[in-house]
Amino acid sequence: MNEKNMEIPLVDPACYAAATAAIRAEASRLLEAGEVAAVVGYRAGRRAGTVMPEVAVCAAAVAQLLFSPGCQHNLTLFLSKAKRDALPKGKVAIVVKGCDLRALAGLISESQLKRDDVHVIGVACPGVYGANADQTRPLNADTVARKCRECKVHLPEGVDLVAGTLPALADLPALEAQEMARLEAMSAQERWAFWTEQFSRCIRCLACRQVCPFCFCTQCLCDRNRPQAVDTSPRPAGSTAWHLVRAMHLAGRCSGCAECERVCPMDIPLNLLNRKMAQELFELYGFEAGMQSQEQGVLTSYRNDDDQSFIK
Ligand code: SF4
Ligand code: SF4
Ligand code: SF4
After folding, report:
1. Hey, which end of the chain has fewer CB within 10 Å, N or C?
2. Over pLDDT 70: what percentage of the chain?
3. What is the pLDDT, as a whole number, of residue 2?
């Protein structure tokens, strides 16, 4: 794609405005009828084009709710038991994109909440900005998130309302699939060298943990110092151990929202690792996380016909 084509907007911005109007109308109705105590959604951030989470409890806050390409956050983060204290007591409504819904299903299957505890406002989502995108520019082939290029869930299913309608979408090259193919083509030694180089840049800021809907342990194993399981300083051995623990703890649970990768200040391709783990679990057990809300986690269940060829 040449530079000129990259500036062409992927979709008519009016589709975001239509979704915004539908979210506000539904939020107003729910709060006025007393059906929910709050609506968890998005509002404009401080800088142009940016967005931040909003917990709307009154008409003035509802008027600020919006949907735009800046709505990258996976708001289901607020629904785990550990984080729900940030929300008013009672049933809440939440704005979710199709990719966020898998996290919601996962949280329900891990008994973090019940489906009846939440009113789900799904959004017809053409795409959002990727990490480090200039959010003052339109959403185009250059600024769209890589996950959106391969999205199969633009229209969320099983929600209480779908806000907006989906416009025609451009067919873009699948960069994540290409990156996975490059990884697959490496030898085991090359892969180890690749990942240790990536992990060596980690500064252990733990933004990836803070933003993940599934990192809800009240005390992370990686913070413990009596006894210390993982060196907490950003040295290569400790950082590699942190990433291995993280990958294993999220295997079969990660919904692939790519929020960890988006917030990483060191540009570590965390979602490539997440996707690789998900691919392994699919090939071994035919399991995909977050596809059903009542599923049992693949690493917490056992079947007689499970593949055991990896046990040497
Ligand atoms: S992956 Fe799909 S649902 Fe998620 S933000 Fe991108 S386009 Fe929207
Ligand atoms: S966000 Fe990036 S730098 Fe920070 S701990 Fe996670 S991987 Fe390391
Ligand atoms: S590990 Fe990353 S991609 Fe997976 S659910 Fe957590 S934040 Fe999302």
Report:
1. C
2. 93
3. 47
Mean per-residue pLDDT for 167-182?
A: 91
Mean pLDDT throughout 17-36? 98
Name residue, tokens 């992990």. Answer: 199
Atom number in ligand 1 closest to CA 97: 3
CB 74 within 8 Å of CB 259: yes
d(CA 14, CA 17): 5
β-pairing, 51-56 vs 38-44, is: antiparallel
User: Which atom of ligand 2 is nearest to 204's Cα?
Assistant: 5
Q: How many CA atoms lie within 13 A of 145 on its CB side?
A: 24
- Write down the pLDDT at residue 220: 85
φ/ψ (deg, to 5) at 204: 60, 40
CB of residue 246 inside a 6 A radius of ligand 1: no
Q: Is the dihedral of CA 30, 35, 37, 41 positive or negative?
A: negative
- Return the closest-CA partner of residue 97 out of 68, 72, 122: 122
